[in-house]
Amino acid sequence: MARLSKPPEGVKESAVQMLAESFGTFYEHAIAVDTDHRITWISEGYRTFLGLDHEPLGEPIIRHVPNSHMPRVVDTGKPVFLDLLFVREQWVIVSALPLQDESGAIVGGFGFVAMADNTSLGQLANKYNKLQKELDSVTSQLDLERRSKYRLSHIVGRSRELQRLKQKLRQVARFDISVLLTGETGTGKELFAHAIHQLSNRSHKPFVSLNVSAVPENLIEAEFFGVAPGAYTGATREGREGKLALARGGTLFLDEIGDMPQNVQSKLLRVLQDQEFEAVGSNKVQKANVRIVAATSRDLQSMIRDGQFRADLFYRLNGMPIHLPALRERLEDIDLIAERILDEITTKLNLQLYFLTPDALGVLRQHTWPGNVRELRNVLERAIILSENNPEIGAGLIRELIGVDLSIGAGETQLDSVGDNEWTPAFEALVPLHDHMAAAERAVLRQALARTNGNRTQAAELLGISRASLYEKMRRLGV
In the CATH scheme, what architecture does the domain 328-477 have? Predict the structure, then answer.
């Protein structure tokens, strides 16, 4: 048997040189790094592909390829051959090799990238990119349905208070911390939550909203965390994702957080602390990559003292507190707000443009607005309906729709403020007593509905009447 002789001097170096030239020909996209993972060389083709308008020499590779294999290859000395990597919204096939000096010490790494082309590897990358586009087309439609509907520009007003608030929103949105929105019912907390999401670096991900007070207590956990397949009788085989899973990567808005049951409060605390949760009926831990924006019209600190709300959860939610002023505290904004609302209503209903007379705006500025912007929208919607195609909404119609003395407080009706021997301006017009009674009753119904966020069952309980009686009064009084 013939023995193989030792390769002549220089054969190894020539083979390495040929291999490098072959890689350079086959992979026009290549890059090299040092032991600190900083770029020492990059091919022109790869620099163009990465969209760099400068030579990135000396810069960390993860700055331009965040999921690069190169740092791991350099640190471990183990090469990566023909692996997939998602770079600049497409799949590429990469190989990464450690570079050694004569003593065998690692001095850096060298990587090659195969793009989608007519080569065998390029065709494989092409196949994965096609599958990715099909997946994106499905998920993008789902995400589109959960994108933020409102921007900061939807919050209108000229008051100094509002300008300070909008500036605070811009600052808060940049940092990925929890936000707690407080304020009276109807101040537009969900609108502000949308704006925070839109300004954040999560804006391209879903915005998911959950009104805690609107979900029955026995269902809130399933709605929040989701349900594992077959978790209980009646659960589907496929299970169901909860709001936490649907909002993954984006923002989860929890409205009326003060109504969250205490057993769920402890589980929400885990989400905020560890960013993980388990679906109902499952032992599998899921990651919860979401930003929590919570809102409440209740006094959470008072609830903490009464043992109704967890103090540790409050401090986690209260990473950045933002208090929204009541409408009566920024009445100088009411003309701009009313104009925006009229535009939205007429656009939605495909109607002609309606406008308020100066006298009508004067009436709006005198009202205390216990239901805030939600009440204002309700009044303007009815004004459009009752204006009988007259685009001019006058003071008389607005005064009739508001239906209470404009000088009283937010929680009082006209009848509450009138003593046995008192004479008030509201009675100077000598309107029949029946009309005053109806107006006062209508105001009380609106306030009850505003305080319960439109929940008619709770409003009936608050007023001490049956739900059937509430419906009848709403029908009769046009509420």
Answer: Orthogonal Bundle (1.10)
Compute how many other C-beta atoms are within 10 angstroms of the C-beta atom of residue 380: 23
| Angle at the Cα of 275 from the Cα atoms of 198 and 239, rounded to 5 degrees | 90
Angle formed by the axes of helices 456-463 and 467-477, nearest 10°? 100
Lookup: tokens for 44: 């022109």
User: What Cα–Cα distance (Å) separates residue 9 from each residue in 6, 12, 15, 19?
Assistant: 9, 7, 11, 17
Residue with tokens 């520009």: 153
Tens of pLDDT, residues 313-329: 999 999 999 999 999 99
Please name which of 175, 171, 210, 206 lies closest in space to residue 289, comparing C-alpha atoms. 206
Q: Within the chain, which residue ranges are assigned CATH 3.30.450.20?
A: 18-140
Q: What residue spans in the chain does CATH classification 1.10.8.60 cover? A: 328-477
Is residue 208 within 8 A of residue 252, CB to CB? The reply is yes
Can you give the pLDDT at residue 130? 56
Q: Which alpha helices (H) appear in 52-206, and where do they start and end?
A: 70-76, 120-145, 160-173, 189-199
Q: In what order do the strands lie in the sheet with 291-296?
A: 207-211, 251-255, 291-296, 179-182, 320-323
| Residue showing tokens 């390495």 | 16
What are all long-range contacts of 430-439, with beta carbons under 8 Å and residues at least 24 apart?
438/403, 438/477, 439/403, 439/404, 439/414
Q: Are 272 and 259 in contact, with CB atoms under 8 Å apart?
A: no
Confidence grade of residue 16 (pLDDT, cut at 50, 70, 90): low
Give the separation between CA 117 and CA 49, rounded to whole angstroms: 14
Q: Name the token pair of 291.
A: 């930003």
pLDDT for 256: 92
Q: Which of the two residues, 469 and 416, has the higher pLDDT score?
A: 469
Nearest to 182 by CA among 313, 311, 301, 271: 301
What tokens were used for 240?
Answer: 């169901």
DSSP 465: S
Query: 3-class DSSP state for residue 287?
Result: strand
Q: Which residue has the higher pLDDT, 119 or 310?
A: 310
> pLDDT tens, 247-267?
989 999 999 999 999 889 999
Q: So what CATH class is 152-230+239-323?
A: alpha beta
With 0-12 / 13-18 / 19 or more C-beta atoms within 10 angstroms meaning exposed / middle / buried, residue 288 is: buried
* CATH number attached to the domain at 18-140: 3.30.450.20
Q: Say how far apart CA 378 and CA 445 lie, in whole Å.
A: 13
**Dihedral angle at the C-alpha atoms of 339, 342, 347, 348, nearest 10 degrees?**
140
Cα Rg of the chain (Å, integer): 32
pLDDT for 215? 87
**Residue 118: pLDDT over 60:** no
**CA dist., res. 116 & res. 99, Å (int):** 27
How many whole angstroms separate alpha carbon 297 and alpha carbon 257? 9
